[in-house]
Amino acid sequence: MNLFDLSGRIGIVSGTASGMGRAMATAFAEAGADLILLDLNQAGNEATADTLSKLGRKVIPMRCDVSRFADIDAVYAVLDREFGHVEILGNVAGNGAQGPAEDMTPEQVQYVFQNLVFGRFYNTQQAGRRMLRQGKGSIMSIGSISGVTSLARQQSIYGMAMASVIHMTKELSTEWSGRGVRVNAILPAQVTNPTNGLEARMDREPGLRETFLHGIPAGRLGRPEDIMGLALWLASDASSWITGAIIPMDGGNLAMNAGGGHVGKSGHNLKI
Ligand SMILES: NC(=O)c1ccc[n+]([C@@H]2O[C@H](COP(=O)([O-])OP(=O)(O)OC[C@H]3O[C@@H](n4cnc5c(N)ncnc54)[C@H](O)[C@@H]3O)[C@@H](O)[C@H]2O)c1
Q1: Tell me: the pLDDT tens digits for 85-94?
Q2: Which CA distances in Å does 248 have to 16, 43, 251?
Q3: 16, 62, 95, 164: which to mutate for ligand 1, most atoms within 8 A of CB?
Q4: Which residues belong to the active site?
Q5: Running DSSP on this structure, what letter comes out for residue 117?
Q6: pLDDT in tens, 129-179
Q7: pLDDT per position as a tens digit, 118-131
Q8: CA distances (Å), 222 to each of 56, 188, 219, in order?
């Protein structure tokens, strides 16, 4: 038996034009799942779909703003028509905002919560209803290390929203796991890719790369591919007793009290 086989399963993944969403969708398709891919960037999403279709999968790219309930309703109408079931949901897309807490406007707060909290909840609810009827399903949401610890980078609203994603995971796991639907969260630390702007920011801000690395005992920043094995494990029967888990994908960041060390040094290179 291949514990990681996803043949015959249907997955919905958001944020699939780039980064961790594309990497997650690739892992699912390589393991045999057919997919609906959601992104605002239709050209990038179609490119991902083309690549994954070549693996022999049925892949439907949809332009969807995960912060808009009507867009998500349209996704599930397509799912019901084209597939009739869903076993996997990956909540990846959604934007944050950065700035001093005292200056954040109500509109910015609403924007972040609409993207990261209401979007993830509504998508989870739509998939969850179908999975509960089936008695089987695996839902995973990208949170962030900022949902459990302050990043000290003026990301209060983002951190508050990611904390909500973490608590949603615990609540829904508790309500649904007895009916076959597992709900888990993945908390990345800094994951760079050419499109998410992190490389550009590190180039602009002197010392930022070193500051990030200071908080990562593994000694390197994350790459989108780092999510592939973890996401496949969570989607598959290999993790059938894993639910309500809040899993760091962070090179050791949360295990370390990064606030107390020497800037630019961490466990892997610290010599005192
Ligand atoms: N990269 C990191 O360091 C990091 C760390 C922790 C958490 N996260 C979170 O992980 C998620 C993905 O990050 P990434 O680095 O892979 O980003 P990315 O920018 O590489 O990819 C995000 C994708 O989501 C799409 N998208 C953005 N808003 C959308 C919306 N409202 N509806 C539909 N699609 C939308 C974008 O077009 C893009 O294709 C984000 O929610 C981010 O906050 C990222």
Answers
A1: 999 999 999 9
A2: 21, 31, 8
A3: 95
A4: 158
A5: I
A6: 999 999 999 999 999 999 999 988 899 999 999 999 999 999 999 999 999
A7: 999 999 999 999 99
A8: 29, 8, 10
Write the single-letter amino acid at 43.
A
Pocket test for ligand 1, best of 191, 201, 228 (most atoms within 8 A of CB): 191
pLDDT tens digits, one per residue of 6-65: 999 999 999 999 999 999 999 999 999 999 999 999 999 999 999 999 999 999 999 999
| Cα 200 off chain centre by | 21
Report the sign of the C-alpha dihedral through residues 46, 52, 53, 57, in that order.
negative
Ligand 1 centre distance from Cα of residue 124 (Å) = 17
For ligand 1, atom 23, the nearest C-alpha belongs to 15
Looking from the CA of residue 192, the nearest atom of ligand 1 is 1
- Quote the CA–CA distance of 189 and 213 in Å, as a whole number: 10
Tell the residue number behind the tokens 């508050």, with chain if given: 160
**Residue 265: which residues within 8 A CB-CB, separation 6 or more?**
214
> What atom in ligand 1 is closest to the CA of residue 92?
11
**Ligand 1 in contact with 66 (CB < 6 A)?**
yes
* Superfamily holding 10-253: NAD(P)-binding Rossmann-like Domain (3.40.50.720)
Domain ranges of the chain: 10-253
Q: How far apart are CA 57 and CA 7, in angstroms?
A: 10
Is residue 162 exposed (0-12), middle (13-18) or buried (19+ Cβ within 10 Å)? buried
With vertex at residue 48, the alpha carbon angle to CA 201 and CA 77, rounded to the nearest 5 degrees, is 110
d(CA 235, CA 89): 8
Evaluate if pTM is beyond 0.85: yes
